[in-house]
């Protein structure tokens, strides 16, 4: 893969309404702030089809707004083409990782490197827990983890 010219990143969680849209919006803002938006294509998706077409959870949107970040994301399910198109597919927990590895084994010409977003956390918190059944504080924790991980990921690959 090229020297990260037009690098592509997809962030994946179970339903694509909490963690992955937060990570997507955070990474997109970091890339925009660094004036690198022409070098990255960022998206997020779900391993399940439960929430396809839905906007992110209202608590996720509120958390992002509190940090000056807007998103127009709508949930979608990961596709075979994603494994062939994206350079990196970063997920939130071991269940996502297992599901993605299983799906990628069914895709011819899979080029995506699949790993946990938490791999990049300088604080070594490998798993980004699903805040869906939690409260606003849990969404803030997810935001902070995503910010640390996305910054470290961008530093490594830019």
Automatic annotation (TrEMBL):
One of its GO terms (cellular component) is cytoplasm. One of its GO terms (molecular function) is non-membrane spanning protein tyrosine phosphatase activity. It comes from the Eukaryota. It holds the Pfam family LMWPc. The active site is at residues 19, 130. Coiled coil: none annotated. Acts on tyrosine phosphorylated proteins, low-MW aryl phosphates and natural and synthetic acyl phosphates. This is Low molecular weight phosphotyrosine protein phosphatase. It comes from Promerops cafer (Cape sugarbird).
């Amino acid at each position: 893969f090229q020297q990260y010219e037009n690098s592509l990143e997809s962030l994946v969680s179970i339903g694509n309404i909490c963690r992955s849209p937060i990570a997507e919006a955070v990474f997109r803002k970091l890339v925009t702030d660094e004036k690198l938006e022409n070098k990255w294509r960022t998206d997020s998706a779900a391993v399940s089809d439960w929430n396809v077409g839905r906007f992110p959870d209202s608590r996720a949107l509120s958390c992002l707004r509190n940090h000056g970040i807007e998103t127009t994301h709508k949930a979608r399910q990961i596709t075979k083409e994603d494994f062939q198109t994206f350079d990196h597919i970063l997920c939130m927990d071991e269940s996502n990782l297992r599901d993605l590895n299983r799906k990628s084994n069914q895709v011819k010409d899979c080029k995506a490197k699949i790993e946990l977003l938490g791999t990049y956390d300088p604080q070594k918190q490998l798993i980004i827990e699903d805040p869906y059944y939690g409260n606003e504080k849990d969404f803030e924790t997810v935001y902070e983890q995503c910010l640390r991980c996305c910054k470290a990921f961008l530093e490594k690959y830019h």
